[in-house]
Amino acid sequence: MSTNLASTRFSVLDRSRIREGHDGPAALRDTVELARRVEALGYHRFWVSEHHSVPGVAGSAPTVLAAAVAAATSRIRVGTGGVMLPNHQPLVVAEQFGVLESLFPGRIDMGLGRSVGFTDGIRRALGRDKHDAEDFAGQLRELLGWFTGGGQVHARPAEGLRVPPYVLAMGEGAAIAAAAGLPLVVGDIRGREKMLAAIERYRADFRPSDWAADPYVIVSGTVAVAGTEEEARRLLVSEAWSAAWSRTHGAFPPLAPAERVEALAASGAMGGKERGFYESGLSGQLYGTQEQVAEELERLVKESGADEVLVTTSAYERGALLESYERLARVAGLGAGA
């Protein structure tokens, strides 16, 4: 293992992907079980995400799911990757994280994103519109202000607590993180040039704050590790096909078995546009044997100067996914996985 990887934290973000033949409740239980397993492997933190009205994703209430994960684990940090702040009132977000931090002190992270519901129907149901994402910086200031207090209204039990905030961002969002003096979560790793530019701007413009004295960079993306390169690639095909289907049909479906996706690709049954999105979804991903992934991760960490790698892999085969995390733990030299 390289010196760079030895000094880099590794964490997991799970999006509670639904698999064909299974339902949303099963996906949520899978997320909690995965958290238990990666904690035993020595990963640093485990985050969950927020998606609304997506057929293939069960994670719609990240603070609720984070509570279940924290209750099922004992050491690993738990948080959100992230709560989409434009979808919510900052006071309510502060209260929710205040409750989490009160119940699980010293283990909670507050990952925050700037996306708003992605269709008009979802935005109407949330009581939001697409312009609500335009003042993310103001929403962020208001949220953090509830933890310091001083006004006539008090966020209980958040006021006075320290819940580390993280900004999930690219481009303009990285500038917001730098101006606020907050850690940055940047992805995905396939857009390497754009990612590195965002990180460079973030570090150059970072202003120390009460929340962070120095820049802190987490790079996020898919990493799959298996006994062979082809087996590792196979872990990615279900997600790649689901993303391709969403780009061509407007709906993000549950994960299909890898064998069926590969059969579709081999038979020519995929339309030309869908096939293009599918192949694009596989290109540039970080996958391979332990030796291959170690080399690629070493390059990624060296180029980005990342303090941490947040892995977001989804796969139909849960056993193979867990094995991938076990192999990655060995690559990274983590606790029980070393």
Structure description:
This protein is an alpha/beta fold and 338 residues long. The chain has a single domain, classed as Luciferase-like domain (TIM Barrel), CATH 3.20.20.30. Helix content is 48%, strand content 13%. The chain has 13 helices and eleven strands. An eight-stranded parallel β-barrel has the order 1-2-3-5-6-7-8-11, surrounded by five helices. Strand 2, helix 3 and strand 3 form a beta-alpha-beta unit. 47% of the residues are buried. The model has no long low-confidence stretch (mean pLDDT 93).
Number of helices: 13
> Which percent range fits the helix content?
40-55%
* Alpha carbon gyration radius: 19 Å
Q: Provide the CATH architecture.
A: Alpha-Beta Barrel
SSE string:
HEHEHEEHEHHEHEHEEHHHEHEH
Tell how many strands the DSSP assignment holds: 11
Terminal Cα span: 10 Å
Query: How would the global form be characterised?
Result: globular
Count of separate structural domains: 1
Largest sheet: 8 strands, parallel, barrel
CATH homologous superfamily designation: Luciferase-like domain
Mean pLDDT: 93
Outline of the structure:
The chain has 338 residues and is α/β, with parallel strands linked by helices. Helix content is 48%, strand content 13%. The chain has 13 helices and 11 strands.
Helix/strand layout:
Blueprint: H1 3-6, E1 9-14, H2 24-41, E2 45-48, H3 62-72, E3 77-80, E4 83-84, H4 90-103, E5 108-113, H5 120-126, H6 136-148, E6 165-168, H7 172-180, E7 184-186, H8 192-205, E8 217-221, E9 223-225, H9 229-249, H10 258-267, H11 272-282, E10 286-288, H12 290-304, E11 308-311, H13 318-332
Parallel strand pairs: 1-2, 1-11, 2-3, 3-5, 4-5, 5-6, 6-7, 7-8, 8-11, 9-10
